[in-house]
From TrEMBL:
Protein name: Uncharacterized conserved protein, circularly permuted ATPgrasp superfamily
Residues of the signal peptide: none
The Circularly permuted ATP-grasp type domain, residue ranges: 73-450
InterPro entries: ATP-dep_Glu-Cys_Ligase-2, CP_ATPgrasp_2, UCP005522
Superkingdom of this protein's organism: Bacteria
Organism, scientific name: Sphingomonas gellani
Lineage of the species this protein comes from: Bacteria, Pseudomonadati, Pseudomonadota, Alphaproteobacteria, Sphingomonadales
Amino acid sequence: MQDREVFDEVFGVGGDPRRELRALVDWIDRTPVADLKRRHDAAEAAFRQIGITFAVYGEEEAAERIIPFDVLPRVFSAGEWASLTRGLEQRVEAINAFLLDIYGERRILRDGVVPADLILRNPQFAAPIADIRPPKGIFAHICGIDLVRTGPSDFFVLEDNARTPSGVSYMIENREAMLRLCPELFTLFPVQPVDGYPDALLSTLRSVAPDRAANEPVCVLLTPGPFNSAFYEHSFLADNLGIELVEAADLEVRDDVVWMRTISGPVRVDVIYRRIDDDFLDPLVFRPDSMLGVPGLIAAYRAGNVALVNAPGTGIADDKAIYSYMPEIVRYYSGGEALLPNVQTFRCREPEALSYTLDHLEELVVKLVDGSGGYGMLVGPTSSRDEIERFRAALKAEPHRYIAQPTLALSTCPTLVEQGLAPRHVDFRPFVLKRADGITITPGGLTRVALREGSLVVNSSQGGGTKDSFVLGDRSTMQSQSLEGMHQSQILPDLFTDPPLGGSV
């Protein structure tokens, strides 16, 4: 089962189980594959029944899909997590300092650390809000930092997600599934709980409310609507936060104040957790043809009458060309070296990097600087000659739109596939919440797995799946995990109590 050319997070490099995960290996060995498949089928049936789906744009058939779920967990030791936490805190603090700077004094541009044109001419630079200081000076309240691993202690940041990071609902639902499907694993391991995320997020939203509403701020989640690929997550989070899920038609702005229409009359809104990109937020400021935004919203934000989470303008931190400067950005604002390094990156806007990329396309991964979801990407070693030549032409025509990176030997985890158990490549998205008084990182995250043999693309839209991510704690201080007291909408159906042998419903 072990691919000896890469680091497996359970079986190491040589195929011998890692000592700290011996208990997991023993569990795998004594659990028949048929039983694992039965549990997998139960999870799939339950997820389908409660509607845990995502939309695939551009496909008429099977446009709504469930994300495949793997019952073999990924495990992080307490020491690994402590190291990651320090690096994540440093990076998110630097991202916020960077955003506050480029929309304010622009010291980093004057000092020549980052090219000014890369910021000021960037489509993601929100010039209309450049003179607005967000509440408490925080731009990116919620960040999802994508990490990859290549060895026992070799973690790298693959990309930053500060605009509208998604996937946290799957982190929570995956844990609930594992508690029901594989409760014995929570006896074997002191797994830290993840179900505190909704409370931590609500606390983060309330922390940036206008002063007049400091005690009981009204928070809402603004969604583009049910046709958005992440709508399940929007409704899940609103329900678990205990806040209203609203669309643009539910809100109006009068005298620079945001009001929510209700059957009892208008209710003043203090904080908006927006899951809409900047371009569509306010047709009076950004795209005039937007039907998803609220006219006058930015005026209310400018007046300090409403907080927007994440703040407008954060999208520029997701740009992959900006990502390539993150080691310098972290050093500039923190005074130290980045604890979590970047993957080596070639900026194709630079002639020397472009020349190298064109000469080594068969070896590199090439990405659009504003791409996401696994689209607009070339994986050289697995691409056809025609695909490579198409990218070569695109690079020559618009080199500034691309970056290139070496093809990493991403770590693998044992995964249940059609043929049984096999190693599959994984990445990891932890979720970081930033408030004025500190940072909260949920001890877990979204592990995405490339289910196709040999594939390095983990995105759900490209056939990837998910795993639960166990972060181990000190057993003596751990509280027992339980489904008791959780919101009823979170409870997965009783299919898990007696998993069916068939997976379809």
